[in-house]
Amino acid sequence: MSGISRTHEYLVRDALKEDLDKGHDVTSQNIIPDTHKTKAIMRARESGVLAGIQLAETTFFLLSDEITFTRHAKDGDKLDAGQYILTIEGPTQSILIGERTALNFLTHLSGIATLTYQYVEAIQGTKAKILDTRKTIPCLRALQKYAVAIAGGSNHRMGLYDAVLIKDNHIAVANGIKPALDAVKGQDSIEIEVDTLLQLEEVLSHGGADIVLLDNMDVETLKKAVQMAQGKIKTEASGGVNLETVRAIAETGVDYISIGALTHSAPALDIGLDIDA
Fold it and tell me: What is the per-residue pLDDT across 69-115, written as a single tens digit (0 to 9) for each?
């Protein structure tokens, strides 16, 4: 997954418009003179992993080209509580207008990075890799998957267009595993979801898939599935994964563990911005 690009500037513009619409920051404009300048410090209020600093900088830059930055950390860095992230200097009104938008991006993406890092650390020493999913906030997928990757996770498919993933509803409509696999023969990457060892046996007998998604299987069933698939097909565990269970799942020998919670349920990392009075 590549870094945050200038193409994401439109997201920042839309976020600022959400705050300002066609008006102004009526609070700051009535309290702070147009000519007033200041320095503000963005710092971590708890430990975590940083992601999204470029979006924070873009937010302030779009409000004033007089604003300057000093970075104290970069994306992927491990943060301690109280650690400085960014110093922002320039027009006070612009800094306060951009404060919440910049923090919304930064705390959300850093929260994803922090949770991903916790999962990656939990399975150290196993061969498994942590994957994200398509359970993302609409229009933020690329950014959320970037935060996963910057923390050591791996990206699953970006969308419906870049890999075949046959799920239970596809199998139901196709009237079975064999006809579903027959229909996608020749595609570059084919993954299929199974719920039982009997379904796995059918997939292995067909031989038309590259990866099998072992959905909501307990640890003992996962162990049997990995033994059955050994050397024939890659295995991915999904469902029932949390920080308490992920180590045992990884130790079954699966190649991948996909976790929707990385992007749909990661708590925001507590980051604040304070005027350096």
Answer: 999 999 999 999 999 999 999 999 999 999 999 999 999 999 999 99
Q: Look-up: residue for tokens 């020749």?
A: 186
The amino acid present at 221, given as its one-letter code, is T
CB 233: neighbour CB atoms within 10 A? 20
80: tokens are 């301690």
Q: Which residues contact 177 (CB under 8 A, 6 or more apart)?
A: 171, 192, 194, 199, 202, 203, 206
Contact, 108 vs 267, CB < 8 A? no
Residues 249 and 122 sit within 8 Å (Cβ to Cβ)? no
CA gyration radius, the chain: 23
Helix axes 9-20, 92-122, angle to 10 degrees: 130
List residues with catalytic annotation.
Answer: 100, 135, 167, 193, 215
For the chain, list the domains and their CATH numbers: 6-115+267-275 (3.90.1170.20), 121-264 (3.20.20.70)
Contact 216, 238 (CB under 8 A): yes
Q: 135, 127, 153, 113: which is closest to 264 by C-alpha?
A: 135
Global pTM value: 0.95
The predicted-structure confidence for 15-25, as pLDDT tens digits, reads as follows 999 999 878 89
Beta-bridge partners for 271: 44
Mean pLDDT of 174-187: 96
How do residues 31-60 score in pLDDT, each as one tens digit? 999 999 999 999 999 999 999 999 999 999
For the cut 60, the answer to whether the pLDDT of residue 11 exceeds it is: yes
- Report the candidate in 100, 165, 105 with the shortest Cα–Cα distance to residue 139: 105
